[in-house]
Write a structure and sequence with these properties.
five-stranded mixed β-sheet; 2 domains; binds zinc ion; alpha/beta; 10 helices; Glutaredoxin
């Protein structure tokens, strides 16, 4: 999930100016402590039982005082380090909330730092939304209005690659379980199977290289068709050939897909 609040949009220009001023390369300075986030959701009102700051993640426990938050922060820092390498850049901080009553994991960008929200019931399970939600937090650097279908699918790819390469729980053959046309990230998974294990690291590097163009295209001022053309051009560049015929063969319709993937 990825929710952008109305207030976020108003802050977009300020945030983009902030981001353009720096803080887009992998951060080196680990001495600073992040500011607490603005209370942009009802979940921020929940009491903070404990807070743990690691090198690049700051974790807020709103759920259960018996959780050893240091263990959670260590695992999340490992996830951060992996994604920093995977995407070729990183936000200075990712703020992580742990709550009892979230319906699902989700992420927002309402203040200077991206925030993600994880359910306390599965908080020690790094396969449960760590990679997916944190990837959303990393992608805010590329703009605040990435098409929903692509944003969700790219986060799913980060989850696959984290399971295989970081947590080493799964082998490549596992991907076969998702090889069906009704799987929400079918298209990107097919590209990964066709163009190889490192394909999405290449895709992320290409987006990073064109960060200014990304922020222009992935804004509310740009129409969905232009955004999709840009995405397909980057996917083609990473593949070394035009991938548009593949999307056509799969009957991919981003407009229908935007509606189908309303989650
Ligand atoms: Zn998501």
């Amino acid at each position: 999930m990825s929710f952008l609040f109305a207030a976020t949009r108003a802050l977009t220009a300020v945030l983009i100016a902030f981001l353009l001023g720096g803080a887009v390369a992998v951060p080196q300075d680990s001495s600073a402590v992040p500011k607490d986030p603005p209370p942009s959701t009802k979940w921020h009102q929940e009491p903070v039982l404990e807070k743990k700051v690691a090198k690049n993640v700051s974790v807020y426990n709103h759920a259960d005082a018996t959780i050893v938050l240091e263990t959670v922060a260590e695992q999340l820092q490992r996830q951060y380090d992996f994604l920093a390498k995977y995407t070729g850049g990183a936000p200075r901080w990712v703020l992580v909330h742990v709550g009892k009553d979230y319906e699902c994991g989700f992420s927002i960008h309402a203040g200077p730092d991206p925030e993600m929200f994880l359910q306390s019931g599965s908080i020690f399970d790094s396969s449960a939304n760590y990679a997916h939600e944190m990837m959303h937090c990393f992608m805010f650097d590329l703009g605040f209005a990435i098409p929903h279908w692509f944003n969700e699918s790219l986060s799913d790819m980060a989850w696959f690659d984290s399971e295989i390469d970081l947590w080493k729980r799964r082998k490549e053959a596992w991907l076969g379980e998702f090889d069906r046309v009704d799987y929400r990230s079918y298209e990107l998974l097919e590209l990964r199977r066709k163009y190889g294990h490192d394909y999405f690291a290449k895709v992320c590097a290409l987006f990073r290289k064109q960060q200014d163009e990304c922020r222009r295209v992935f804004s509310d001022a740009t129409k969905l068709d232009e955004k999709n053309d840009f995405i397909l051009a980057v996917l083609s560049q990473a593949a070394g050939e035009d991938v548009k015929p593949l999307f056509k063969e799969w009957g991919f319709n981003p407009r229908t897909r935007e509606r189908q993937r309303g989650y």
